[in-house]
Amino acid sequence: MPIAMITGATSGFGRAAARRFAAAGWSLILTGRRSERLEALKQELGDSVEVLTLTLDVRDAEAVARAVETLPDELGQVTCLVNNAGLALAPQPAQEVDLADWHTMIDTNITGLVNVTHALLPRLIATGAGASIINIGSVAGSWPYPGGHVYGATKAFVEQFGYNLRCDLKGTGVRVTDIAPGMAETEFTLVRTKGDQAASDALYRGTTPLQAEDIAEQIFHVATLPDHININRLEVMPTRQTWSPFTIDRD
Ligand SMILES: NC(=O)c1ccc[n+]([C@@H]2O[C@H](COP(=O)([O-])OP(=O)(O)OC[C@H]3O[C@@H](n4cnc5c(N)ncnc54)[C@H](OP(=O)(O)O)[C@@H]3O)[C@@H](O)[C@H]2O)c1
């Protein structure tokens, strides 16, 4: 059976992707910091497929390397890495943000993603044809918006890192895709507002955001394409979300 390793499987896209891959019989390596949620997911999925849970902070390079080095033999030949763990903080303007929040986004969305990718690359290359790295970027990586500051910049990194990886992985069979979602209803806004459920509810009220399952379906689709197809970037928005015009400061 093919094997998927999914970071940030305790919530949102990651958890929905775990369910989608499990439904197709894939073996799973699921990571996140909240072990009780990982355990619950293992209870839910573990009867039908093999599930290994790793309580892991992606920012901890040593812990990530150790966990990947010590994968059990039967789960060592990873087919698909879903680099999903990530977060936005500080929706306020840049000039009002705590520096610590910028560092947390950089450490998680950039350093964490790089840590996991570096650890997994030898295993993915050993798998060869059909292997893939699916990075979860964001429309924020391409399209600026007020309050996007460092979050958008981290997702621009994710996009460019993926393209550059593709150059180096030429000939290995390993594919790299940046899936860039628009607005999706997960715990993302609750995290961004540091637990403000009312603000999160207000953002999604009266419209039709993407659901975690919508993105999980795209992740699974990309992972199961024929070996010779590489989708470089897949930008997915709700039909009811579009762009704003440029804004102009006037006297
Ligand atoms: N929802 C959106 O509108 C949206 C749009 C575009 C892109 N995205 C991106 O999609 C990805 C998933 O977000 P989501 O919407 O599914 O949000 P979510 O429901 O908050 O899930 C985020 C996941 O990331 C994990 N995570 C965060 N920091 C981590 C760390 N230091 N180490 C390990 N795991 C960590 C969390 O697990 P633990 O807390 O258990 O560690 C959780 O499982 C993120 O990269 C996000 O930037 C989201």
TrEMBL record:
Note the InterPro entries from the entry: NAD(P)-bd_dom_sf (IPR036291), Sc_DH/Rdtase_CS (IPR020904), SDR_fam (IPR002347)
Which ranges of the sequence are coiled-coil? none
Pathway(s) this gene product operates in, as recorded in its UniProt entry: Organosulfur degradation
Any one GO MF annotation of this record:
oxidoreductase activity, acting on the CH-OH group of donors, NAD or NADP as acceptor
Q: What is its EC number?
A: 1.1.1.313
For whether the record's keyword set contains Oxidoreductase, the answer is: yes
What Gene3D superfamilies does the database record attribute to this sequence? NAD(P)-binding Rossmann-like Domain
Source organism superkingdom: Bacteria
What are the record keywords, sorted? Oxidoreductase
| Catalytic activity reported | 2-hydroxyethane-1-sulfonate + NADP(+) = sulfoacetaldehyde + NADPH + H(+)
- Entry similarity comment: Belongs to the short-chain dehydrogenases/reductases (SDR) family.
How is this protein organized at the quaternary level?
Homodimer and heterotetramer.
This one is known as sulfoacetaldehyde reductase (NADPH)
Q: Source species, please?
A: Halomonas ventosae
User: What high-level taxonomic lineage is stated for the organism?
Assistant: Bacteria, Pseudomonadati, Pseudomonadota, Gammaproteobacteria, Oceanospirillales
